[in-house]
Amino acid sequence: EDQVTQSPEALRLQEGESSSLNCSYTVSGLRGLFWYRQDPGKGPEFLFTLYSAGEEKEKERLKATLTKKESFLHITAPKPEDSATYLCAFRSGTYKYIFGTGTRLKVLA
Amino acid sequence: NAGVTQTPKFRVLKTGQSMTLLCAQDMNHEYMYWYRQDPGMGLRLIHYSVGEGTTAKGEVPDGYNVSRLKKQNFLLGLESAAPSQTSVYFCASRLDGSGANVLTFGAGSRLTVL
Question: Which phi and psi angles does B43 have, rounded to 5°?
Fold first, then answer.
């Protein structure tokens, strides 16, 4: 069965304290691993798509990486404005997407 | 360019009442989706559509109906609301094509059923 697990559920960091969020998945035939950011009261906002093991993508303080079983979202020197829930998802088949439950990140000034 | 627009943003219903959530996108996307988001459960797919006039069931379709009469609109209906349908509902859309995988989400509709 296709499934995705995110850890930790919640993470509190001091400003400037780098860390990583984990997304573990099992899928028969990965067609894309996605990272989204979700702010309270808003819809998920797209960050990255990764397609194959070894692929990496960066945007400001965020870097996403992909292996055959996991994806990591590395946050370097985070700022309070990076506080949000980060969701990972993968595409299952032609139309469907499977989402994790997210990691709630709080960055303290 | 508004992207994906959901109406209403908030609604309170009594058990047994009916209502319709509207999703409109102005990006000419073929695929549209309705998800619900509940604490600790992530986003779960209710129904989806791969084009005008088509609909299909997702993971949690019971108690909901959908229609896609126009390409830009995807309606989610609750015929007889139940407290278990209290949730935040998100609409999403994407282009057709093998490389067009990214879902664009609306801002959400928060529904409370008393």
Answer: -85, 125
The half-sphere exposure of B43 on its side-chain side, counting CA atoms within 13 A, is 28
- A43:B4 CB<8 A: yes
Burial of A1 (0-12, 13-18, 19+ CB in 10 A): exposed
Instruction: Verify whether the Cβ–Cβ distance A34 to B4 is below 8 Å.
Output: no
Closest chain A C-alpha to B42 CA, distance in angstroms: 4
Chain center to CA of B8? 12
DSSP result, B36-102: EEETTTEEEEEEEESSTT--EE-SS-TTEEEE-SSTTEEEEEESS--GGG-EEEEEEEE-SSTT---
In tens, the pLDDT along B24-36 reads 999 999 999 999 9
Do B77 and B66 contact (CB within 8 A), yes or no? yes
Torsion, Cα A60 A103 A29 A3, to 10 degrees, reads 180
| β-pairing verdict for A19-26 and A3-7 | antiparallel
Q: What distance in Å separates the CA atoms of residue B35 and residue B65, rounded to the nearest whole number?
A: 13
Quick check: B95 contacting A, CB < 8 Å?
no
Mean pLDDT, all residues of chain A = 94
Is A89 an 8 Å CB contact of chain B?
yes
